[in-house]
Design brief:
Structural class: alpha/beta
Mean pLDDT: 88
Number of helices: 21
Radius of gyration: 28 Å
Strand content: 15-25%
């Protein structure tokens, strides 16, 4: 028995090695092919798509040809490239450019931790291509590396050669240790001795001290030492992860007093030194009796896409806690080394971490750039886009009376998120409210929503919170909220096995003179007061009987044992969103054949689902005008003759992160419109609880179609248009045409609203 198992294991191992070897060769071939390609000039597009030319007529007819689909990872990099372009915009204030550099780098970190990690796992196991584009893992890795190296080089050059100097001219001066005066160095010496030195832990690397486990995205130094006998040694020093990267070094007594009082946000008479620069300067103090021969800063990115075996977990809360711990030490996906790190140190790391050359990236400029984002919080309004507060709905009576008069549509941040907070807070204190049910996905720190739910429970109301513990990168925060809510007596539910609860729902049950009434808020974004200021989202407040009944039924599905295959008004994944949207597309095709006025406008963050893409291709082939506003990934190819010549794809990347999902169908003048939480990806349609709610009020439909979708389709200031080959070009205004910036127009419109305009 053991011999057979051993033979099977050896056979499996041999196949895996054989697959990896073949993938290695394919990666080399793909990389060489990329190097042979001529770089395309900016703003041009080649419509030659080799995958299309190799497709059979049958595949093209069935819309199964791989050339009809863009690889999702490559298209995501196109999105992050558009984010980078915002940082390169010379007309943008300096701190706005800085902010977009941070966002670009943070996006890239998460991309490697999740998406590249998944591709690399497929590459190592020799897995066949899985997406409709059928691009092999090796080809994806080669293309990813080529594009990432180009983008990061542009990012680093913009910081080193332009932005850092421009910020210095405006008083935000980044310096190296060598630039400091003698007085500043004395100041730093005391600071290092008292604040930093006690936290640092040098770790020897030798046969009795094996190479340490490096935690994900931590900043580290590899140090080469020489003892008095001339022997070589290696050590690792980790920069403290719980201390600010930005050290404000006063240039004068005034600056010192500001620093001591913690008033560095004004940046008066201070220089900025990065923590790692100071640690490197004082490395020798950590190794008395040894000579520091060389050193270099490095950072690794690990696979954080660790899955929970929910079927085997007795306690999901404990399982998620374990996942958070595991994530810190997943497989290494990327190694970043500082420019100038000696080659022997870099090779030492590559060998110890068992990496392939394509996993190694050299960084010119600050490593972990996204961690510098706190600088954006300095009190320098002249270096930022002027802020305009959202319009808060002022009610002429209590909020429940207002909703009985009609639905309220909110569009954040143009409409303040305060209205949503007030709705939940009012429900928590209103004696007539007997129950509140709420979904929580990413609620942020110091959440007023959680405080209201706790207060409601203390007042004797029935409170249920469906907390999604598996919200990626927010698990620790959600664990904290879940435990706090449970301690207050709230009925906390962790959702369904194998499903994420991504729907944004709040149900309020109230006892009134005519009986029990229900009120609902359904949103496109999280119940997070902080992100609501920078994300564009929508929310519907309603007491529509059918919608409230649907939400009640859905909460029973999420909290108990209930199966629902149909809802009255809502589209709910995983049961009805994809079938519902496919049917709406089919109806639009049929209507167009009869009346000739077919039109579809879809706005979401990602379009990946192959079945929906095929349906949109068929709509285009039937002559339906299809206009897509896709912020991020779009795997559909627009503008292909005979396939998608009636489809356009627009991406808006601006001061606010576009997060609204809105799906509009002309329907021969019926103007069917849904908003909600679901993007058009298999994960949203098959593996999450998502909700799309119809907008029934004609005025609110018109606002979304004309002022939101319409203005974004006409935007010629911050819009990009996707070309057939998957690249994007910036939309430029035609000569003499008015300048249209959809986000700024909505802001201007919001400031002119009167108190009751939202109603």
């Amino acid at each position: 028995m053991s011999d057979k198992n051993g033979q099977a294991k050896d056979s499996k191992s041999a196949k895996a090695k054989e697959g990896t070897s073949a993938a290695d060769q394919e990666l080399k071939d793909a990389d060489q092919a990329d190097k042979r390609k001529e770089d395309k000039s900016a703003g041009t597009c080649s419509v030659e798509i080799p995958e299309l030319e190799s497709c059979s007529e049958a595949d093209l007819k069935d819309l199964d040809c791989p050339g009809l689909y863009i690889n999702r990872e490559i298209n995501w990099l196109e999105f992050n490239s558009r984010v980078l372009e915002c940082a390169l915009d010379k007309s943008a204030p300096l701190l706005e450019q800085f902010k977009f550099l941070c966002i670009f780098c943070n996006n890239l970190d998460e991309f490697f931790m999740v998406r590249v990690a998944n591709v690399f796992r497929q590459y190592r196991s020799g897995t066949a291509p899985t997406g409709p584009d059928r691009m092999s893992p090796a080809r994806q890795l080669a293309d990813i590396r080529r594009r990432v190296m180009t983008m990061t080089s542009i990012c680093q050059d913009h910081w080193r050669k332009k932005l850092v100097h421009q910020l210095a001219e405006r008083g935000l001066r980044f310096v190296r240790y060598a630039d400091l005066s003698e007085k500043q160095r004395r100041f730093l010496s005391d600071y290092f001795t008292n604040e930093i030195y006690p936290v640092l832990t040098p770790q020897a690397i030798d046969p009795t001290h094996p190479f340490p486990t490096i935690s994900n995205v931590s900043l580290n130094f590899l140090v080469q030492l020489r003892d008095k006998q001339g022997n070589r040694h290696f050590a690792r020093v980790r920069c403290p992860g719980n201390m600010s990267r930005l050290i404000f070094v006063p240039r004068s007594k005034e600056g010192k007093s500001y620093a001591q009082l913690g008033l560095v946000s004004n940046m008066r008479d201070t220089d900025i030194l990065l923590l790692e620069d100071m640690v490197q300067e004082y490395l020798s103090t950590l190794f008395p009796g040894y000579e520091v021969v060389s050193s270099g800063c490095f950072r690794i990115t690990r696979n954080t896409d660790v899955e929970i075996e929910e079927d085997e977990a007795d306690d999901l809360l404990e399982a998620v806690k374990d996942l958070v711990d595991q994530r810190r030490f997943g497989d290494v996906v990327r190694l970043e080394t500082a420019h100038g790190m000696p080659a022997d140190l870099r090779e030492f790391l590559i060998k110890k971490l068992r990496l392939k050359p394509f996993q190694v990236y050299t960084v010119r400029g600050p490593m972990a750039f996204a961690d510098l984002m706190p600088l954006y919080g300095v009190d320098r309004p002249a270096l930022k886009i002027p802020g305009q507060p959202g319009h808060a709905l002022q009610l002429h009576s209590d909020i429940f009376s207002r909703l009985r008069e009609g639905d309220v549509l909110l569009h954040h941040p143009y409409d303040s998120f305060t209205t949503v907070l007030d709705f939940i807070k009012t429900a928590s204190t209103d004696p007539a409210v007997i129950a509140i049910k709420q979904t929580l996905y990413r609620v942020g720190n110091n959440s007023p929503i959680v405080a209201s739910l706790v207060d409601a429970r203390r007042r004797g109301k029935q409170v249920t919170a469906v907390v999604e513990l598996k919200a990626r990168f927010d698990e620790e925060r959600n664990i904290t909220w879940a435990e706090e809510l449970e301690a207050a007596g709230v009925n906390v539910v962790y959702g369904l096995v194998g499903m994420k609860i991504h729907a944004k729902l709040c149900l309020v049950v109230r006892r009134e003179e005519k009986g029990v009434m229900r009120y609902v808020h359904i949103g496109t974004g999280n119940y997070n007061a902080s992100t609501a200021k920078i994300y564009t989202d929508m929310g519907l407040l309603t007491c529509n009987q059918d919608i409230c009944s649907d939400v009640t039924d859905l909460f029973n599905v999420m909290t108990g044992y209930a199966v629902r295959n149909q809802y009255r008004r809502l589209l709910v994944s995983p049961v009805t969103i994809r079938p519902g949207l496919l049917e709406l597309i089919r109806q639009e095709i049929a209507t167009h054949k009869e009346y000739g006025n077919g039109e579809i406008v879809l706005k979401c963050n990602q379009l990946v689902d192959a079945r929906l893409i095929r349906a949109l291709y068929r709509a285009s082939q039937a002559g339906v005008k299809v206009r897509l506003i896709i912020r991020g990934i779009c795997c559909l190819r627009p503008g292909l003759p005979g396939i998608s010549e009636n489809i356009t794809v627009t991406s808006i990347v601006g001061r606010f992160l576009e997060h609204v999902r809105a799906y509009w169908f002309h329907a021969n003048g019926a103007n069917l419109l849904y908003i909600g939480s679901a993007d058009l990806m298999p994960r949203n349609l098959d593996h999450r609880i998502e909700v799309l709610v119809p907008i029934l009020d004609e005025d609110k439909k018109a606002y979304i179609r004309e002022h939101v979708l319409g203005w974004q389709l006409d935007d010629n200031q911050q819009a990009w248009r996707e070309l057939p080959d998957g690249s994007y070009v910036k939309v430029e205004p035609e000569k003499g045409a008015p300048l249209i910036n959809a986000q700024e127009m909505l802001l201007k419109e919001a400031t002119s609203k009167k108190d009751d305009d939202l109603g």
